[in-house]
Amino acid sequence: MLAATIARRNATEMIRTQSIARSLSSKATRVGGPIGSDGRHEIWREGIYDHDNEPKVKRRDGTYQPIEKLRGFINYQRNKEPYRDPAKRVLDWGELNPVEGIDDEKHTSIERKVQAARCMDCGTPFCQTHTGCPVNNLIPEWNNLVYNGQWSDAIQRLHKTNNFPEFTGRVCPAPCEGACVAGLVDAPVTIKDIEYSIVDNAWNEGLITPRIPKERTGMTVAVVGSGPSGLAAADQLNQMGHKVTVFERADRIGGLLMYGIPNMKLEKETVDRRVNLLREEGIEFVTNANIGDNVDVNDLRVNFDALSLCLGATKPRDLPVPGRDLNGVHFAMEFLTENQKKLLLTKEGRLESNWDKSKYITAAGKNVIVIGGGDTGTDCIGTSMRHRCKSVTNFELMPRPPAERAPDNPWPQWPRVYGIDYGHAEVRAVFGKDPREYAVMTKEFIGDEHGNVKALITQDVDISSGRPTAIEGSEREWPCDLAVLSMGFVSPEDYIAKELDLDLDQRSNIHAVYGDYRTSLEGVFAAGDCRRGQSLVVWAIHEGRGVADAVDTYLKEKRRDELSAGKPTSVFANLSSISASV
Q1: Of 58, 134, 310, 457, which has the most beta carbons under 10 Å away?
Q2: Cβ-contact 225, 311 below 8 angstroms
Q3: Where is the Dihydroprymidine dehydrogenase domain (predicted)?
């Protein structure tokens, strides 16, 4: 009886809160809203001598009051920090995010506090559960610390669950915001902005310093792959006291963080800064080491106590239609990787990558068509815009998403709704229209007499039956000088798995049970996209942390067994003998 009464009371309070929020939102709209012409909540001070004190902030009801958190989600409006002006940022390769002291769009400390104040005392924070943040970030805790100005404590709480918040704060689509409880009654908290602010403040204030492990276990681990899962695994294992060596087949550390995500989303100095920190903490990195090619994977098994495969899912989904082999039809990563390598030219004119001019793909002056959406498709659009393309069009197989959640997409699921990403905004700013064409599929590429693509044929798609079906007679021809295939990735490349004779799952990923991460071979583990399939950077970090725990448990068991058998425990191998043959 008591439980039923409490449930009814809670339901009544939720309905009342929703009504208040909607009423205030409506009133704020009528009075002009709390956001001023500068894109921030309006502030008011008592007089010219009041600048040493925190100003009063305009609320949705039109009054100016001191900032408070108890009813912050009702009093204040969600105000996401905007990216730089799209018409200006397409002229450079700088990050989308505004820079303190340079860009007017950058939020002030007052606005950051106001946004942190919107985090409600919701009791059950879905933002940090499996429906929200994969690494279970302690979001309400560090939101409250930011509100109270305790930035040093905030970065400690953030690092408690997330090894690389400067990466997720820039590139994560923020599923946590889709699961935010405030989103039930109004707009969600700007969690991603706050995370970004915490970690950038920490770097600027010197709060992030090397953590040298005080003790070493004498056990060694090889991590293959230096993407987010590999780096997270290496970081965790190193802090546990194990000696970790990371092998990367590219010429620079970072995996997709370095060459897969373009500079305007994640500047490479940001990646290098974290990698250099990990190096100072004792992790060894070996580049140009293509395991299974110029480095024998069995050498790793012999010289290390455990092997963790964090290979990513790098085998792209192809489009087997007539004309696919024409010049000018490329996979997204061919386009993005070579572009990023070219950008790594220093101010002194020294190229800091193995850029191959013959592989470089330019969109300059071309009609570009990007086939496939998602983050990678948007990155291809943004890159084409900075190349000064003639036009850019983006094909999506599915229909345009609804403006609001559909009935089969309830909170706290990720909202599958229509949105405008950075690349779309740039096309709108330059060409005056959105680049996306929905519910179309490519039927054929058309070439010229020199074997170059010059156009493609599409058909409209009907999905009423539950699967895409081409509509006869709906063919259209589109001019196209460069076609970029951005349709996702199907699996990891299989040559390492074949050499080790590892079991694969039905999707050709390396088979390793979630939570255990052990493959079918003793001492070999797998994590990240090569185990779970292509996913988000934050999921890769989660997997890296998980496999580190599994490897640590295995090494403890191995050491205990060696001690009980009277065998000498493992010591650090002469790692200089395990170098790439280049």
Answers
A1: 310
A2: yes
A3: 110-206
One-character DSSP codes across 339-401: HHHHH-B-TTS-B-S---GGG----TT-EEEEE--HHHHHHHHHHHHHTT-SEEEEE-SSPPP
- Dist. CA 281–CA 109, nearest whole Å: 32
Q: Is the distance from CB of 140 to CB of 148 less than 8 angstroms?
A: no
* Single-letter code of the amino acid located at 517: Y
Q: Cα(507)–Cα(503) distance, rounded to whole angstroms?
A: 11
Residue among 262, 318, 308 nearest 543 (CA): 308
Lowest pLDDT segment from 52-56, 488-492, 513-517: 52-56
Record the pTM. Answer: 0.90
Strands of 438-527, DSSP E: 440-447, 453-462, 469-470, 476-479, 482-485, 489-491, 524-526
**Sheet with 391-395: strands ordered across:** 329-331, 482-485, 367-371, 391-395, 436-437
Backbone angles phi, psi at 565, to 5 degrees: -90, 0
The more confident residue out of 21 and 537 is 537
The answer to whether 466 and 480 have CB atoms below 8 angstroms apart is no
Rounded CA gap, 369 and 117, in Å?
A: 43
Quote the DSSP letter at residue 577.
Answer: G
CB 468 within 8 A of CB 459: no
Give, as one character, the DSSP assignment of residue 507: T
CA distance 314 to 493: 6
d(CA 533, CA 551): 21
Assess contact for 544 and 231: CB atoms under 8 A: yes
Beta-carbon count within 10 A of 560 CB: 11
Asked if residues 534 and 488 have their Cβ atoms less than 8 Å apart, the reply is: yes
Q: What are phi and psi of 322, to 5 degrees?
A: -55, 135
307-323: buried (b, 16+ CB within 10 Å) or exposed (e) per residue? bbbbbbbbebeebeeeb
How far is Cα 419 from Cα 442, in angstroms, rounded to an integer? 23
**Number of C-beta neighbours around residue 426 at 10 A:** 26
**The amino acid at 15:** I
Are the CB atoms for 419 and 375 separated by under 8 Å?
Answer: no
